[in-house]
Amino acid sequence: MENQYKIRSPFFYAVMRLISNRAALVSGILLSIIVLMAIFAPFITKTSYEEQKFLMTSLAFPSQTHWFGVDDLGRDLFSRIIYGARVSLTIGFAAAICSVFIGLPLGALSGFYGGKVDWVIMRIIEVFSVVPPLIAALLLAALVDGGFFSIIFIAGIFGWVQVCLLVRAQVMAFKEKEFIRSSLALGASPMYVIFVHLIPNSISPIIVGFVQAIPLAMMLEAGLSFLGVGIQPPLPSWGQMINIGISFMFFYWHMALFPTLALAITVLVTTLFGDGLRDALDPTLKGKN
Amino acid sequence: MIRYIINRLLSIVFTFFFISVLIFVLMHAIPGGPFDPVDMPLSDSAKAKILKQYGLDQPLYVQYFKYMWGVLHFDFGIPYQSPGETVLELIGRAWIPSLILGGSGVLIGAPIGIALGLIAAIKRNSFIDYFTSAISTLGLTVPVFVISMLLILLFSVWLEWLPASGWGEPKKWILPITAYAAIPMATYARYTRSAILDTLNKPFVTVLRAKGLSERKILFRHVIKNSAIPLVTVFLPMFIGTATGSIFVEAMFRVPGLGAYFVSSIENKDYPLEMSLLLMITVMFCFAYFIADLIYALLNPRIRLGDKKKQ
Amino acid sequence: MEKVLELKNVSKIYSETKNITNFLSKSDDQFVAVDNVSFSLESKKVLGLVGESGSGKSTCALMAMKLLEITEGEIFVNNNNITNLSLQELKQYRKEMQIVFQDSYSSLDPMMTISKIIIEPFIIHKMYSTHERNEIAIDLLEKVGLNKTYTNRYPHELSGGERQRVSIARALALKPSILVADEPTSALDVCVKAQVINLLQDLQDEMGLSILFISHELNVLRSLADKITVMYRGRVVEEAPTEQIFANPIHPYTKSLLEAIPKLDPSLRKRRTFIDDSFIQSNIPKYSLNDVNFVSTNDSQIGFVEIDNNHFVEAQVV
Predict the structure, then answer these.
(1) Inter-chain residue contact B140 with A268, CB threshold 8 Å
(2) Nearest C-alpha of chain A: how many angstroms from C119?
């Protein structure tokens, strides 16, 4: 019966593939838990990240009252880790959004017009590919003097390259396709073609680029904060906490271990989820052949 | 081919010039100067004298061209933080620990990674395959200072097997080398696995199987040869990448190498040292990618760089 | 007869002078895809354009549609020169002339539903209300032999023949008078191929279309085309009414195309002589200027001559 035919969009198949990928599913769940913990931080812990409430028991080891122990300045380490997740994730997401906003238009233009536009954009990308992001970020961080928004900006500057390349490759692959030519033959303007056909068809690389930019930004932030030019205290950042942890690690290992684990797990989970998304979205053109 | 090489060299010159200007401007745009009084008050006239001595009173573009002219003659200036030697001498001295640790890290990590990737590809979906995937994902995603920290906590703090920091006796090298080895190992494990799997799925392998060739012969005579290309090309960029890693590894393990100078030269506005370090890294990366592309072209008979694309 | 589409001395040359070193060395890496081609499509007729892959026939189609830059020559639509029009000026001619491509899958945006694909022309030209658009979409689907159950499906859920029908429906949405069909049946299997050709024939009668039908198989054109133009290596080598081409092929390349048609009667099958480029080069027909009507010349020796009424062939003039 024609009428009972189930209509399934390409998106449906992507979701099915994602769910059937165990690593992606588990990391997706873990990532959601971390995100929820970051959002509802005030409900999870009663002490804020900067209150030096526990000076009497400073450097105390993990216990029932302080799950992750107390730091050298009498602050509850668990609260600091949770609020640290806020900082890290916010920077990751915000920087990834910046990356998409820079990378998407540049990638689309470069892929669609090719020629001189492409040449210029590729040279810019070449510059970014030979300068290690961390070292350039060090320079920039020194210039704008650390801080929350500066880090987002810096991470965005270094995150867009991947998004741009992904979108460019997709647009280049699609612009020679017949449906683009059909649209042009119908009288569509280049802008119409870019917005109505090319960008929606680049949605997979855009999502993949977005998700992959998140851990990169988080790592950059952690690296800069570790070196003391990133997030400035009292705002908690895992990188900064790891750096402080070094001085205490031989006697008070919890100061070093928990921020390290928090960073490792979050970055790992985000990357795994991003990889799963990429695998799920990659064969976008299901049904061909 | 020659046309391609010339093209790439021109593009490297262009990139180099652009980056040198960018770094120079950025460097000088950072507020403060190298001789701003920190501990001792410096009279204005004394400061002016020092600035004049180092040529910092001249307009920026003059300083830039003077410096770059020097660079073209291999004169990289004198570091402000250690005026007793030239920048080249300082880098040459500090380079040695970084090179020993980073180099051994790559040389040890890469073969292990290749072996893991190979086994993982052959025994797909086995325990070792999952183990390799886990290890390589960890090594590729987790920042090197996190790996270092976990190594220290495990082997120095809890097990007390190995010293956590310092330089000198080889025992102290083990942990930093392990930290350095993580990235090459992870990269190679992942690349090898996917390259071998890719090749195993090619029709020509099916044809070889149909011909009755043994799996081992297929693997060693045909598959490995055909999968080797990407493995060769990632080597140089990865090797130079250890320079960035050194910033963290050496900070974690307190190794007196090059890494610390990246940060201190920026903090202290040590312009000649800062500029030299950044230019050096940039040029090395440019050439690493260039050589990687050339090797790729030489090894891959299907690609002739610069040839006209048919259709 | 009124000419609705005309290509006049059109050439397409791909040259590689993109980067600095090429510019410095001044080498001319040129590839001539289409070399001085002229042909015309008459009103309410079907012109078959035939040739092997790489002969430049699809390039001609794209240039005729102004989807590809023209290196040399001019293109006329209803006797108006559209060669140098801007995108904005071209827009009104787009309503007159539409194209259907070979690959039905890549002809349809995979992210759009069938109804969205069919009403796209109205969105681009800002025609009709949303409600009217949907009604017209269903009309169009029925016209090409599909029905309204297809409207919410995605291209990957359709078969090749169905997708090609959707492409045709979209191309006809603006009621064009000219349709360029760029190998619309090459990717389809035999019985679907026949259905699509029948559909095109019906639509031609119904809508009074003029069709430029591109194919690499002569037999597809036999029932469909009024006139056939044979292209070989970017040049037109022979042009004649369909019966003439089948009855009296002159150029060795045309002959080889005819021989390639499978024959039903085994007694007619003969051992085929393998025809390669050098054979064709050395067997170019020769004519004396006294016998034929000289039309134009490409270079000193090879010219385009009229050997019979409306039968043109590229030949050596002696």
Answers:
(1) no
(2) 11
Give all chains having 3 or more CB-to-CB distances under 8 Å with chain A.
Answer: B, C
With CA atoms as reference, the chain A residue closest to C187 would be: A289
How many other CB atoms sit within 10 Å of the CB of residue A286?
Answer: 16
Task: Mention every residue, 6+ apart, whose C-beta is less than 8 A from residue A65.
Answer: none
| Average pLDDT score over residue span B57-63 | 77
Taking alpha carbons only, the member of A91, C236, A123 closest to residue B19 is: A123
Chains touching B (3+ CB pairs < 8 Å):
A, C
Chain A residue with CA closest to C100: the answer is: A182
DSSP, collapsed to helix, strand or coil, labels residue C39 as strand
Per-residue confidence of chain A (289 residues) as pLDDT tens digits? 345 556 667 677 777 777 777 778 888 898 888 888 888 877 777 776 666 666 666 666 677 776 667 777 667 778 888 888 888 888 889 999 999 999 999 999 998 888 888 888 888 888 887 788 788 888 888 777 767 888 888 888 888 888 898 889 888 888 888 899 899 888 888 889 988 898 888 888 888 888 888 888 888 888 888 888 877 777 788 888 888 887 777 777 777 788 888 888 888 888 888 878 877 776 543 332 2
Give chain A as a DSSP string: -GGGPPP--HHHHHHHHHHT-HHHHHHHHHHHHHHHHHHTHHHH-SS-SS--TTGGGTTPPP-SSSTT-B-TTS-BHHHHHHHHHHHHHHHHHHHHHHHHHHHHHHHHHHHHH-HHHHHHHHHHHHHHHHS-HHHHHHHHHHHHT--HHHHHHHHHHHHHHHHHHHHHHHHHHHHTSHHHHHHHHTT--HHHIIIIIIHHHTHHHHHHHHHHHHHHHHHHHHHHHHTTSSSPTTS--HHHHHHHHHHHTTT-THHHHHHHHHHHHHHHHHHHHHHHHHHHHTT-STT--
pLDDT score at C213: 92
Residue of B142, B150, B242, B248 for testing the chain A interface, max A β-carbons within 10 Å:
B142
* Residues of chain A found within 8 Å of residue B258, distances taken between Cβ atoms: none
Chain C environment of B308 (Cβ under 8 Å): 16, 29, 31
DSSP single-letter state for residue C267: G
Looking at the complex, does the CB of residue A200 fall below 8 Å from at least one CB of chain C?
yes
* C14-62 per-position pLDDT tens digit: 876 544 444 444 455 678 888 888 888 988 889 999 988 878 888 898 8
Q: Is C220 exposed, middle or buried (0-12, 13-18, 19+ CB in 10 A)?
A: buried
Beta-carbon pairs below 8 A across chains A and C: 86
Between CA C302 and CA C317 the distance in angstroms is: 6
